[in-house]
Design brief:
Blueprint (H helix, E strand, L loop, with lengths): L2 E4 L4 E5 L3 E7 L5 E8 L52 E4 L10 E9 L18 E9 L5 E10 L4 E10 L5 E13 L4 E9 L2 E9 L3 E7 L8 E9 L9 E7 L4 E7 L5 E7 L6 E3 L4 E12 L3 H14 L14 E3 L1 H4 L5 H14 L3 E4 L27 H11 L3 E6 L3 E3 L3 H5 L18 E3 L5 H16 L5 E4 L21 H16 L7 E4 L9 H4 L4 E3 L6 H11 L8 E5 L13 H8 L3 E4 L8 H23 L1 E4 L9 E7 L5 E8 L10 E2 L9 E4 L6 E2 H6 L2 E2 L9 E8 L1
Parallel strand pairs: 20-21, 20-29, 21-22, 22-25, 25-26, 26-27, 27-28, 28-29
Antiparallel strand pairs: 1-2, 2-3, 3-4, 5-10, 6-7, 7-8, 8-9, 9-19, 10-17, 10-18, 11-12, 11-14, 13-16, 14-15, 15-19, 16-17, 23-24, 30-31, 31-32, 32-37, 33-36, 34-35, 34-37
Helix pairs in contact: 3-11, 6-7, 9-10, 10-11
The chain binds (2R,3S,4R,5S)-2-(hydroxymethyl)piperidine-3,4,5-triol.
Length: about 725
């Protein structure tokens, strides 16, 4: 088994193929963290715990006169609160007597084969071929009988460990859970960089790397969604770690709502990182016997740098996350109507766009926003999911049939979680949106957020959206969400439970996705929140792909996609070719470059195909053919970031390498051109040094070693924003 308890040492040992995780029940029943890192065999690492009398670090009462035992410096699996440990806490509760402490002692544990499950929440699952074992450790506070069950599942062959926490109130009193971190990890050193992915609408997942400093660094969201501003993924890596070398730890949160990731460098140069639901405005009531399940964190360790860490996440997120059967199917190449027409279309115009798209090799036509109710701009009709017959007199059915007759599949945009004030739904049920008593709710894009914590609201959404999906032949759905939550207050929840609304919203969202998405396995769902405002593993559990960003400028996309690839696989990133000058930046970039950049994801088009010249359509056709030819390599191959656009400005390059290393595709965009500039080279990665390869367009062959050590010349004739691809095949 990959999980063991060594009774004589009181240690728990979790083993993956290349990593080891060890913890220990200490003298007074506290669960201490010993090690996470490079795989070790059956070694007992208890010696790492060095006790010392440390000034101003209090000692638990049961330690008696022993002044060397303090939770203020010992590494812990789940830190207590209100007793001896002043560092970041894993939990904060308000007990029935008004006190704020939780002091968990190891009470029992269970080890079993298979993966734990988390009620109402998405999480990784074990596929048939995966060997997964689980450890659950009960930490009970003897004073209050509140228990935190720490859950660990080990994906041995995939080098992945998942963690989650369940809190059970076994006392006779009602308690309030005010903070619960799904993962706490202590390191006995602090020479690390903290890498996180930040941004804003239209510029998501920007890479940021900073050394740890004394005190706390913090990323997170309390916008009601994982957000454009920070992604629920972070890395701690050795200061010198690069793509190819060094110890790196990844922490990825499988949750789509408020989250927090904090890292603290303490007074003794130790590190604690915590990740979980953001505690702001969070207070969960637990009556006697009730329990709370905190979402999952997916951990990966790489001793071989950041690229290997990426490969671990890409594999497990491709194979063990998404529930849709579409995750394993080849994704269709689509054309989306949004940047082509926005709200201004009728049936004839859509059919014209579709007709020209057939010529480009496109396989799916997606009708974006504007097809329902009185939706002629973005200030009306959300919630009224009836077709707008002024625009589409023959309904979705008629349009879809015509599209199918052209040989295309048909897709549709929806935004089920929202309501416009100017809608039939709002006029009928004003109390169905999140709003606070005595205040008018804040608007975002003129819309309000439906109260998904309510069952009647969820039932309405499920019924109305399912009837849309059943009203026509629909093979693809883009599920959008265009504002963040404010006014998190529900009309039907008692006041003591209003601190649960943000989380109950997300549970409600997962419930409606279970009832809409998982009941339509034949439909490919694409997530979206104004682009990548909810690009997280929670959404990827339901939707195999997510619209990466509302920014379709190919040059901006280089950075957005760079950041996204650290944890999310290519199969998750929907990426479109749009027109120039670009609608978001005004920049003009060659069509070939836009194609090459969009091929670093699930390729699509988002433009008015009727305005393309014959030559442009020919280029698009070529792109589609090239993409389809290289699809297995791009989507299932290993991903290599060859440059970092934040530290190297001349060109951006990335590479896909087949799993057996017999084929590779390097893509390169020249981002900074000077006159009469130096000759540049790009070095491949991941090839077999001994194999001979043929590079498309070059005479003779080269060894993998030469391609990786000497590299390939970047054509000197490339002008600013032009791009090139090198297709490399083993002889
Ligand atoms: C935001 C999305 O990201 C866009 O692609 C588009 O679908 C609009 N919403 C439609 O309102």
């Amino acid at each position: 088994m990959s999980v063991r308890y060594i009774e004589s040492k009181k240690t728990f040992l979790l083993q993956t193929k290349n990593s080891t995780y060890q913890m220990k029940v200490s003298d007074y029943g506290y669960l201490l963290h010993l090690y996470y890192g490079e795989r070790l065999e059956d070694e007992d690492l208890s010696y790492l715990i060095q006790l010392q009398d440390r000034g101003f670090s209090p000692n638990p009462n049961e330690a008696g006169n022993d002044r060397t035992f303090s939770l203020d410096f010992l590494p812990q699996e789940f830190s207590s609160d209100g007793s001896c440990d002043y560092r970041l806490s894993s939990i904060e509760v308000k007990n029935g007597d008004g006190s704020y402490a939780f002091v968990g002692k190891a009470a029992k544990h269970e080890i079993y084969a298979g993966k734990y499950s988390l009620e109402g929440l998405p999480s990784l699952w074990a596929a048939d071929q995966d060997r997964v074992d689980t450890l659950e450790i009960w930490l009970t506070d003897p004073a209050t009988q509140l228990t935190a069950v720490l859950c660990y599942s080990v994906f041995e062959e995939k080098d992945i460990i998942t963690r989650a926490v369940k809190v059970i109130n076994e006392s006779e009193e009602t308690i309030y859970l005010n903070r619960i971190m799904s993962m706490t990890m202590d390191f006995m050193d602090s020479d690390y960089d903290f890498i996180h992915f930040d941004g804003r609408h239209t510029m998501e997942r920007e890479w940021s790397r900073n050394p740890l400093a004394y005190g706390i660094q913090n990323v997170g969201s309390f916008r009601g969604a994982s957000s454009h501003q920070h992604n629920p993924f972070a890395i701690l890596c050795e200061r010198g770690a690069s793509e190819d070398d060094g110890r790196c730890y990844g922490f990825s949160f499988v949750y789509s709502g408020n989250f927090m990731c904090k890292v603290e460098k303490d007074q003794y140069d130790q590190t604690r990182i915590v990740m979980g639901i953001h505690p702001k405005h969070f207070s969960y009531q637990l009556k006697p016997g009730e329990r709370f399940t905190a979402p999952e964190v997916v951990l990966a360790y790489s001793g071989k740098g950041l690229t290997h860490l990426t490969h671990l996440y890409h594999r497990v997120y491709r194979e063990n996350l998404c529930k849709s059967p579409y995750v394993r199917k080849e994704r269709p190449i689509l054309i989306n109507s949004w940047e082509a027409a926005y709200f201004d279309f009728d049936e004839a115009k859509l059919l014209e766009i579709a007709k020209e798209a057939v010529d480009m090799g496109v396989e799916l036509f997606v009708l974006d926003d504007g097809w329902f109710g009185n939706r002629n701009d973005d200030n009306a009709a959300l919630g009224d999911w009836d077709v707008n017959t002024a625009k589409l007199p023959r309904g979705l059915g008629g349009l879809s049939e015509d599209i199918h007759e052209m040989g295309l599949n048909f897709g549709l945009w929806i935004e089920p979680e929202m309501v416009s004030e100017n809608s039939e739904l709002y006029r009928k049920h004003p109390d169905w949106c999140l709003q606070m008593p005595r205040r008018q709710p804040s608007r975002g894009r003129y819309q309000l957020v439906l109260d998904l914590s309510r069952e009647d609201v969820r039932d309405y959404i499920v019924t109305s959206i399912n009837s849309v999906l059943d009203s026509a032949r629909i093979e693809y759905v883009k599920w959008d969400m265009n504002r963040f939550i404010t006014d998190a207050w529900s009309a039907i929840v008692e006041k003591e439970k209003q601190g649960e609304i943000y989380h109950r919203y997300i549970l409600g969202l997962y419930d409606i996705m279970n009832r809409i998405i998982l009941t339509h396995p034949e439909i490919l769902f694409c997530g979206c929140s104004g682009g990548g405002g909810r690009f997280d593993p929670g959404m990827l559990y339901y939707q195999p792909q997510i619209w990466c960003s509302d920014n379709t400028d190919a040059v901006c996309r280089l950075k957005i996609q760079y950041g996204t690839t650290f944890v999310y696989p290519v199969s998750a990133m929907e990426s479109h070719v749009s027109v120039c000058p670009n609608h978001q930046t005004g920049r003009t970039v060659p069509l070939e470059t836009r194609g090459i950049t969009a091929m670093d994801g699930i390729l699509g088009y988002e433009l008015d195909s009727t305005k393309l010249t014959e030559e442009e359509k020919r280029i698009c056709r070529q792109q589609v053919e090239a993409y389809k030819r290289n699809y297995p390599l791009i989507v299932y191959g290993d991903y290599y970031r060859l440059t970092n656009p934040y530290t190297f400005s001349e060109y951006v390059a990335w590479e896909h390498v087949s799993r057996n290393r017999d084929e590779a595709l390097i893509s390169l965009v020249l981002t900074e051109k000077e006159a009469n500039d130096a000759q540049r080279y790009v070095k491949a990665k991941g090839l077999n040094p001994q194999m001979q390869y043929q590079v498309d367009g070059m005479e003779g062959s080269l060894s993998g070693q030469a391609l990786m050590s000497a590299g390939l010349p970047v054509p000197g004739k490339l002008m600013q924003y032009e791009a090139v691809q090198y297709h490399i095949k083993a002889l």
